[in-house]
Amino acid sequence: MCLAHVVLIILPLASVAFRVVKRLIDLTPPKYKSNVEERERFYREFGAGVSEDREDEDAVESSESKKISKPSDFQALFGGNNNDHFMLGIKFTRRSIKLYGDFYSSDMIVASPLGLITKIGEAEMFKEKNVDYLSSIEVLIVDHADVILMQNWSHVNTIVEQLNRIPCEQHGTDIMRIRQWYLDGQAPFYRQSIILSSHINPDINGLFNHHCLNHEGKVKLASEYKGVLPKVVLQIRQIYERFDAKTAEDADDARFDYFTKKVFPKIKDSIQGGIMLFISSYFEFIQVRNFLKSQEASCCLLGEYTEQSDISRARVWFFNGTKKIMLYTERAHFYHRYKIRGMQNLIIYSLPERKEFYPEVVNMLQGSACTVLFSRFDQLRLERIVGTAAAKRMITSDKGVFVFC
After folding, report:
1. Is-contact 113 156, C-beta < 8 A?
2. What is the pLDDT of residues 213-272, one digit of tens each?
3. Which of 3.40.50.460, 3.40.50.300, 3.40.720.10, 3.40.710.10 would CATH assign to domain 6-52+70-211?
4. What's the fold here for domain 229-404?
5. UTP25 NTP hydrolase-like domain location, by residue (predicted)?
6. What is the DSSP letter of 387?
7. Among candidates 84, 90, 108, 109, which has minimal Cα distance to 12?
8. Of residues 238, 240, 147, the one with CA closest to residue 201
9. How far apart are CA 152 and CA 114, in angstroms?
10. CA gap 335, 64 in Å, rounded
11. In which residue ranges of the chain is pLDDT below 70?
12. Fold identical between 6-52+70-211 and 229-404?
């Protein structure tokens, strides 16, 4: 706004920020980047902790030493610096690029959601601190939004709500140069917002609908999906059971009610064991965990907040049958891609956000069938897995059970 015309780029990991900033430097015309200040510090803090000269050599050695058991998308995302707490100001001058610039004078800010939320929290706690530099954001880019969904999307909503507010202090601004529509609180309608993701979901749609308000209009690009069922290499009957939910707000309770009344009675007295419950959200994980405890079910947990020692113990218990049921969350799979042995019966309580997780989990099954629960409000996730055309039929059909082999 009145401080500078700033671009804000929100990214999930330092390794992603490293690639983005490096590309920006590469694309800058030579006469404007004769001097890149703090380049070595940037490579230390955002790269692999080595200098630029050794980067390519170390990258080759690192890629050769990666465990081949991890999928290629996991290696691409987590093969570098996985720090998710950072902020970097960048200022472009006639002869140089200044990294680690002051946020109030920077032309571009590259930050993680957690890094920005920390600054916003400090500004709320201490009067001498503020985030007035967010008032001048004219271009917002949220890249790798699908990865940020696996972190904490509420941070993004909070950050966007802080943009383009009237500053608390003047910060040396020439008042005569401030545009009237800024003073009238119209800045959000002039900001360009770009959200980049491998897929859309209700959270991204919510940000798009409520916070992308440019007066020139907006565009959303959506894909049609063929589905990932062909990637299930085992001969497994995949049984999709649709439950009824009146509204999106009721869907979580309806799913839980269907599980407790229709699914759990079939497995509670199972002698065989090896029952995996794959659950997408942490809220659902807690809800199902508490229910199983109330039923004194033999279960173990593998979630994103489970201690490593408990994870190792749970995997052993599940494999040897000491515990009959395992709860496994999508975020735990996202960050670790565990190979779970001893899975005889797979129940997908809620479909994963990331479509590649479906065949990865189903292909670990040592039994012959899996059960998937869904409602009409799961259409976005469903179409990424079974295909757009099939998902529409499954949502609208009079039938409630569908089988894929």
Report:
1. yes
2. 898 999 998 889 999 999 999 888 999 999 999 999 999 999 999 999 999 998 887 777
3. 3.40.50.300
4. Rossmann fold (3.40.50)
5. 7-219
6. -
7. 84
8. 147
9. 8
10. 21
11. 1-5, 49-68, 168-178, 181, 183
12. yes
Q: How many helices (H) and strands (E) does the chain have?
A: 17, 14
* Residue type, position 14, single letter: A
Locate tokens 């996730």: which residue? 381
What is the model's pTM?
0.87
Tokens of 280: 């997408």
Structure tokens at 26: 């590469």
Structure tokens at 213: 């308000």
Tens digit of each residue's pLDDT (9 = 90 or more) over 391-401: 999 999 999 99
Task: Spell out the domain ranges in the chain.
Answer: 6-52+70-211, 229-404
| Tokens 């990666």, located at residue | 66
Which single residue is written with the structure tokens 């529409």? 392
Rounded to whole angstroms, the Cα distance separating 214 from 14 reads 29
What would the DSSP string read from start to end of 239-291?
A: EEEE---SSTTTHHHHHHHHIIIIIHHHHTT-SS--EEEEESSHHHHHHHHHH
